[in-house]
Design a protein that fits this description.
Two copies of one chain form a homodimer.
Chain A lengths: L2 H12 L5 H6 L2 E3 L6 E4 L4 E11 L11 H17 L4 E12 L4 H17 L3 E10 L4 E11 L14 E4 L5 H12 L14 H8 L5 H10 L2 E6 L4 H12 L2 E5 L7 H10 L3 H7 L6 E5 L1 H14 L4 E7 L3 E5 L5 E4 L9
Helix pairs in contact in A: 3-4, 3-7, 5-6
């Protein structure tokens, strides 16, 4: 299923299946349709909940990921969704479906990575489920977070004339994946990688969820909309555009390109823009802010040492558009990230 | 992995991976090791969280379950864990890994069953994740609940001399599964089943989570320990025994046997006791209560029309024991439910 199908499918499966009364009675503030759900909690705060699954052969294989990285990334991708709501992470449940051929030492490595991530970002792992799997490992993580009442940063609040920003370089994860798939070496450790490729491989294997950036944006009270980039800039910009009923214009000249990404693209004859737009799993935050608040946010981010790049703007013409270096504007499709196929 | 392995594995993977300070800081009241986890919530209540996964070929196949039942049971098994804490269910996230060959109409049926269960028990479905799967469907549900502060019913509080009770007939689900596996007919609807087999097939396909019983037990403040029976009486009695550091003596003569189960066992030459002890997925509640409170609970259950059977007692001799009709006592092993293998 492509990501495009995914959105249609979720709509198809869930539309009008539950009364609004029931959802209201149960304190649902934001249900299906954002990075995470938000529900009523205690008087001053709301509970944020998200889940994300990694499936062997679909999201990883022995050529692309070390076992430790599988555990780390399974939680990191969920943390990214919590960051994209501006929330503070709290508790995780882990559901693991394990094929017979997985040794306990491989599972131990997966959990080593998982706990590395949990301890780094102060997440308590409080439970889960293990079951057999006929053939492939399936790891599903559910993560909660807490956010100040009605302050969660949604996709749906972008305003025409806002500027579009991102909190880091894009396309590196997809380039790292490309390298690993070309290399075709099982269980390739970092020690065996040349220094110049490491940033790309690390971006794919150990993405850094933008927890600080998410909280900074929420606390500033100046961020209009926010999304995490799990499926490439094009897809995520489309999500903001659709949820907010606005258009987005990306300025190609303003997209920052990581020097390692550029060097690798030159080497293998690929376009960085393709990976930036249609790669995925960069897990940076993409958001919008009114022009008058850009300077304030830029200086706050600078003080924290977090990148804050302006990429474009919010316009009233629906869809996502890109302006190239010659000033030509074209519409771009919501083509998501499809891993290996 | 057998259930026996599962407990050892969970211990192996999670033991001492996180500091108690971090878990305390994050308000963890009960982490790994009960039907569900409990964390601090608002001043008067705590949040209960659980997850449970169903994997095609491991937990179901086209001979045993209709698509609608897969969705229904995926949520019902989680509800059972919430019931076993005495909590009120609240919000669910659904993670679905979908093989290419699944049609959208099959997925629609799964979600039909899922929402039937959600609406029946007033659970709000608030989000989830969909991804591809190489071959088999994997559905993982995370469910939250709410419980009065420090009132959650744990496994670990059984006292010597307590009586052991169960809230319904056991072994029916395993017998229903046996029937369906013998029958070997794909997508066998209820309409095609003879009336006398339906209670067993229904017990397997649409188990009824004991939400009312769980709340009644909590509100009575007279239940010492509680567990749900997902893996057979033997395994669950062992869990209470181990968590509470007590022994359990089951009186074979006191185990109620559903008339349909008895008739089916006579027909196919099986022992009801085997399925009661080592079958699984009955999703009734197994608990302990002091002798002086049994009568009170019995009358409360009777008024609500919920079965309340006394099965045995809590003893100080470790392990789980069974006394047969001749008065002979033997130890029984913690052999769990292994579905198809």
């Amino acid at each position: 299923m492509s990501k495009l199908d995914e959105f249609a499918l979720i709509q198809f499966l869930n539309h009008k299946k539950q009364s609004e009364e029931l959802q209201q009675k149960l304190g649902v503030i934001k249900g299906i349709g954002d990075d995470a759900a938000v529900v009523q909690h205690s008087p001053g705060s709301q509970l944020v909940m998200t889940c994300d699954t990694m499936v062997e052969t679909i999201h990883f294989n022995p050529y692309t990921m070390l076992d430790e990285d599988v555990g780390y990334k399974a939680l990191a991708s969920n943390l990214s969704d919590i960051a994209a709501m501006g929330a503070v992470p709290k508790h995780a449940l882990i559901s693991l479906s394990i094929p017979k051929h997985y040794s306990s030492s491989r599972l131990k490595k997966i959990y080593k990575g998982l706990y590395e991530c949990a301890n780094e970002f102060e997440v308590a792992i409080i439970g889960g489920d293990t079951s057999k799997s006929p053939k492939h490992l399936n790891i599903s993580v559910t993560l909660t977070g807490e956010v100040e009442t009605n302050q969660a940063l949604l996709r749906s609040n972008a305003k025409v004339n806002d500027l579009l920003f991102v909190t880091g370089f894009l396309g590196c994860s997809a380039a790292g994946l490309h390298y690993l798939l070309e290399k075709q070496e099982r269980h390739l450790t970092s020690a065996k990688l040349s220094l110049d490729i490491q940033p790309l491989v690390q971006a794919h294997r150990r993405p850094i969820p933008q927890m600080k950036a998410g909280r900074l944006l929420l606390e500033s009270k100046r961020c209009h909309s926010l999304n995490d980039i799990s499926d490439g800039l094009a897809s995520e910009a489309h999500e903001i555009s659709e949820a907010s009923k606005v258009g987005i214009l990306i300025n190609e000249d303003m997209i920052p390109i990581h020097p390692t990404l550029r060097a690798y693209c030159d080497l293998v004859g690929k376009s960085p823009l393709d990976w930036i737009l249609y790669g995925g799993e960069d897990y940076h935050l993409l958001g919008t802010v009114s022009r008058s608040n850009v300077e304030y946010l830029q200086s706050r981010f600078q003080r924290q040492g977090i990148p804050f790049f302006i990429l474009g703007e919010v316009i009233d013409q629906k869809g996502v558009h890109i302006k190239d270096q010659y000033g030509n504007i074209k519409k771009i499709q919501k083509e998501g990230y499809n891993h290996f196929n």
